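W.,

You were right to be curious about this one. When I first looked at the sequence I had no strong expectations either way, so I just let the prediction run and decided to look at it fresh. Below is the sequence, 349 residues in total, followed by the output.
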Amino acid sequence: MLLKNKDMSSVVKLRVNVLSVLILPVISLFLSSCTFLLKEEEELAPPVKEPQKITYKTVEVKKGTLEKRIHCTGYFVSVLQKNYFFESYNGNLKDIYVKEGDRVKKGDLLAELFDDSLSREIALQELIVKKIQLNYDKIGAERKQDDKISVYDLEIAAQDVEIEKYKLNTLREDLKKRRILSTINGTVVYTKELQQGETINAYDLIVSVADPGALQLQYTNEDVSDFKLGMKAVIEIDEKTYTGEVVSISSQEASDKARNAQNSTLIRVDNLPKDTELGSYARITLILEKRENVIVLPIKSISSFEGRKFVNVLKDGIREERDVELGTQSNTEVEVVKGLDLGEQVIIG
């Protein structure tokens, strides 16, 4: 049975109303949830933080004292040292009788060459001198008893004695030149490494002996131009400090010809302990330059770029570059001659 148009319209309206009743609460609930989520998100958002304030480590510009120093190590040497060599002979080594560290006395035999039977010649000549001397004594005694013995014969006998003594002395001098005797009491500080029978040239250094009672501190380097005569030094020996003074600066030929010539300086140490040993080491601190009442900054506060020297000054909380002129410099500090005023704050690090 078909519905009339009027009735059909009524049915449609009814369905719309029912859907409205069902849908509107759902939409309302959805919108409420969205609103709740938005509010919740706004409440959970982190607060905006202010940027952290930059802090600097600074040092105040003020005057002080700057010392330029050098630190080095020296060793004790004797200022009374004798170097020994064979003066006139090229010969073959018989032996070296000492080694480094040995104590010797004046007159001790240090080394000698083979004498090529010279000792036998000397012994023979000593007998000849004795024989001639006996003849002279005999003639002299006879002349006292007999005037017939002429003065001429006595004088000839005397001349024979002098001639043979001269020969003996010449042989002894030759033997002496083949031997090296110590002329001082001391310690052997150098011996040349040689084998028996090895050929030795005249004036080759063989042995060095030093007096351990006359010690000074020696610093050796290729360049000792920083050292000046009369400079004061601080010396550290076994953790104790002593004063010293530069007393010699020279270019010395090393004792061994295999070594190179080196520059060295000698420092006299005041009140040197008596137990200080030859060859022992000590620390040397030398004050090269001292600047008083000048602006001094740590070296690490100085920056450089393409020959330009500058520092960073903190002024009213703002970092500012400042060109500076530098003077004397030590290992840790530097003198600022121009570019800064007292009381300013310089950034370091």
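Here's what jumped out at me. Residues 71-79+211-289 form a domain with the Elongation Factor Tu (Ef-tu); domain 3 fold (CATH 2.40.30.170). And, maybe more interesting for your project: The CA atoms of residues 205 and 300 lie 52 Å apart.

Coffee later to discuss?

I.
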